[in-house]
């Protein structure tokens, strides 16, 4: 059961990343974040009411609130990176989010094993190579790499916070609801400030009503992935769940290759692959 739910997680995250990246090539990234998460919050609100999740309210929800503040910033960085650079590079680098729980463990007195140490070295090498050293052709912009790493840090922080926000399935629904509502409020406030300063909050043609199904899919797939990952962890070893769930960049890369015909330079593909290998070593160490 752990393997099944973890693989479903990787599929959902991978497709959500692909969809979010496509949407931000047509609409402002912050708008995509706010509306996709708003739809997810509405659906989660119904689920919480139906399952009696309000009974799980308590001090742990502060972790969900904090995750809701960090999440929009991470998604904004990630979607901007996906809009600027190849998905086959950006998505594997973002999977370095798994390093954050390891850092939390170090702060609590844990020490990395041999595999984790190797994973750090491999991942750093992958980050450098994925930037595309100028051996011919265009390199991936430094801004794209920076945004991706910032997103990875944010995603890892969100995962660590959500893990502390609930201990039951109904509690998880409530935690995810609080997180998404906070996402929408924080992101909506940022959109308001941006519009007051004359920034673009909608495409030139106005609100893209035709993208509502895609926005809904991105928001709900992201929420569902969080849920299936939590179920996977509850039913088996965290290491197994983390390894299988962290395969989502492969889904994004395959989708980009299949639908967008993206092709990477050899050095970029090698760097993205090393980053993914480093992530797996970190998760299994």
UniProtKB/TrEMBL annotation:
Listed Pfam families: EamA
Boundaries of every EamA domain copy: 3-130, 145-283
Residues annotated as transmembrane: 6-23, 30-55, 61-82, 89-108, 114-132, 144-163, 169-194, 206-225, 237-260, 267-284
InterPro entries per record: EamA_dom, EmrE-like
Record key words, sorted: Membrane, Transmembrane, Transmembrane helix
Family classification: Belongs to the EamA transporter family.
Name of the protein in its database record: EamA family transporter
Species in which this protein is naturally found: Streptomyces thermoalcalitolerans
Upper taxonomic lineage: Bacteria, Bacillati, Actinomycetota, Actinomycetes, Kitasatosporales
